Amino acid sequence: MGEQPIFSARAHVFQIDPATKRNWLPASKHAVTVSFFYDANRSVYRIISVGGTTAIINSTITPNMTFTKTSQKFGQWADSRANTVYGLGFATEQQLQQFSDQFKEVKEAARLAREKSQEKFELTNPALNIAAPQLSQDLSEDRHSPPLLTVNGPEDKLFRSKSADMEQLTSEKERIKKMLSEGSICEINLEAELFTLQDSNAKLVAALHEANTGVEEWKKQLAEYQEETGRLRDQVAELEAQSGRPDPSESETRDELTQTLEELEALLKAKDEEIHNLQSKNSDIRDLEKEREEAVQRLQDLETRNAELEQRVERAEQTLASSLEERDRAESEVQRVIDVLDVKIYDLNDLRQSLAKLIDK
C-alpha cells in the first residue's frame, strides 16, 4: 500500500534564499496544492507539493520540526534534511490555522511512530539495553567530576579579570547578533507580505482594466438601449394617438412594446449596479496600494535598523580583538616573570647546595 493523502490546502510556496538566508524566493507563480501524505509501510509522514512536473516541496516530518506562524496569513518551517526553510502564504487566516493544526497532529504522530520503532528495536536487540546503563553512568561520572584548578597568585587574578572581560564581550556580541537575527526575521516576513500584496495588487489592476473595458462597452450598450427605449415610447404614443379605440392587433402590439420597455429598464438597472460595483473595487485597490506603501516603509525602517545593528556588531568585534591583543601581551609578560622566577629559584638552589657543603666541612 503506497502513500495516502490525509490533508490538502492551497497556498503560495516560498523557499529561503540559500545565498543570503534572509530573503524569500517564490517557488510557485500561483497558489498550488500542498498536501500531507502518510506512508503506512514505513510509518513516515511527508509534505508534498507539485508544480507542473516539478516537486516544489518534498519534506519528511520529524518530531523536532516546528511550524511557526509569522503573520496572519504566513507560516514557515525548517527542513534540515533538505537544508532549506519553506514558507507558505495562505488566502485566509482560517486556512493558515487549519494547516498549523494539521502540522502539529502529524508531528505528534511522527513522534509516536519513532518511539514505537525504537521500542521494537530495543526488544529485538537486548544487548543494547545491558550496555546502556553502564555508558550512562560513565557519562554521568564524567559530567559531575570536579574541574582541575591552578592557582598562581597574582597571575591567576589577572587571568580571571581578562576572562571576565572576554565573557562580557562575548555575551554582548551574542546579544547583538540575536537582535540582528530577529530584525532579519521581521524583514523576511515583511518581504513575504509585500510580495503577496504586490501579487494581489497586480491581479486587481488587471481585473480593474478588464472592468473598465467592460464599462465602456456597457455605456455604449446603455446609450443604444436608451435610444431604443425612446424610439419605442414614441411608437407607443403614436399608436395611441392614431386610434382612440385600438383594435385587438394594435393592443397586442402595444403590450409587446410595453413588455420590451420593461425588459430594457430592468437591463439598464442591472448595468447600473455592475458599474457601481466596479467603482467600489477602485476604492479597494487604493486601500491595497496604501498597505503596500506602509509595508515598504516598514521594510526600509528595518533595513536602517539592521545597518545600525551591523555597525554595533562590527564595533564589538573590534573591541574583542583589542581585548585579545591585551590578553596576549599580559600572558607574555606573565611568562617573562615566571622565567625570571625560575632562574632565581635555580640560583637559590645552587646557593643552598653550596651552603650545605660548607656546613658539612
TrEMBL record:
Transmembrane segments: none annotated. GO terms for biological process: G protein-coupled glutamate receptor signaling pathway. Residues 1-110 form the WH1 domain. Keywords: Coiled coil, Cytoplasm, Synapse. It is found in: Cytoplasm; Postsynaptic density. The keyword Coiled coil applies. Belongs to the Homer family. This is Homer protein homolog 3b isoform X3. The lineage of its organism: Eukaryota, Metazoa, Chordata, Craniata, Vertebrata.
